[in-house]
Amino acid sequence: MTNQDALKQLVGQEAVKFIKDGMIVGLGTGSTVKFMVDALGKKVADQHLSIVGVPTSKRTKEQANHLDIPTKDLDEVDHIDLTIDGADQIDKNFQGIKGGGGAHLWEKIVAINSTKNIWIVDQSKLADQLGSFPLPLEVIPYGSHQLFQRLVARGFNPVFRMINNQYVTTDSNNYIIDLHLHQIKDPQNLALTLDQMTGIVEHGLFLNIVNTVIVGQENGPKVLQVRP
Ligand SMILES: O=C[C@H](O)[C@H](O)[C@H](O)COP(=O)(O)O
């Protein structure tokens, strides 16, 4: 296991300490969350916990089911106590970029329906300012090349996300366009602009969402309380 993976595993294990018997828990997506779901599967089995997971992607649902963690879809629950998710970049004001794995649409819907949100990251994800990580947009395939040109015209440096010359598609069968912005001086203003562009289903700016960040560091996980 790489050193970075070891840090991800430690934050994943730390995060499941926040999960108590009876909770409905949003399960994020990504390589860090994968370690958390592994730890949760073990906790559920060892402590005979009665919890329900609400997965934010098909791959997380598959992993949870494989580990015998009961899951429900978002519309089958009446609340979510806590969601634990990863992040691609977090700035000094605890605003985040998500969607490096293309899951930010479902993740954001689950996050805004959760009483509390915890992000688990290794220390490489912390930055003064957002933007060195490309900002993902989930876009409707229909007319996406026209949208792309509008993004070019705004100087947003868009790139369709492709693998082996094929468009990457999300769990909702949409495309991803990554904006190579390098720096985002005003995340709120950019979010408003993107919210208003027809064809963008959701962008990866997660603003004023996280309550607690758990950072994996060499000397152990650090828990940062951001907002109540
Ligand atoms: O779309 C993916 C999600 O937003 C992930 O939470 C994010 O990309 C972080 O993933 P990882 O833990 O693999 O760096």
UniProtKB/TrEMBL annotation:
Short name of any one Pfam family annotated for the protein: Rib_5-P_isom_A
Positions annotated to bind substrate: T29, G30, S31, T32, D85, G86, A87, D88, K98, G99, G100, G101, K125
Pathway of action: Carbohydrate degradation; pentose phosphate pathway; D-ribose 5-phosphate from D-ribulose 5-phosphate (non-oxidative stage): step 1/1
InterPro entries in the cross-refs: NagB/RpiA_transferase-like, Ribose5P_isomerase_typA_subgr, Ribose5P_isomerase_type_A
Catalytic residues, chain numbering: E107 (proton acceptor)
Gene3D superfamilies: 3.30.70.260, 3.40.50.1360
Record bears the keyword Isomerase: yes
A GO molecular-function descriptor: ribose-5-phosphate isomerase activity
EC number: 5.3.1.6
Signal sequence extent: none
Domain of life of the native organism: Bacteria
Keywords in alphabetical order: Isomerase
First-tier enzyme category under EC: isomerase
Catalytic reaction equation(s): aldehydo-D-ribose 5-phosphate = D-ribulose 5-phosphate
Iron keyword on record: no
NCBIfam families the UniProt entry points to: PRK00702.1, rpiA
Protein family: Belongs to the ribose 5-phosphate isomerase family.
Functional description taken from the UniProt entry: Catalyzes the reversible conversion of ribose-5-phosphate to ribulose 5-phosphate.
Quaternary structure and partners: Homodimer.
Protein name: Ribose-5-phosphate isomerase A
Native species: Lentilactobacillus raoultii
Gene: rpiA
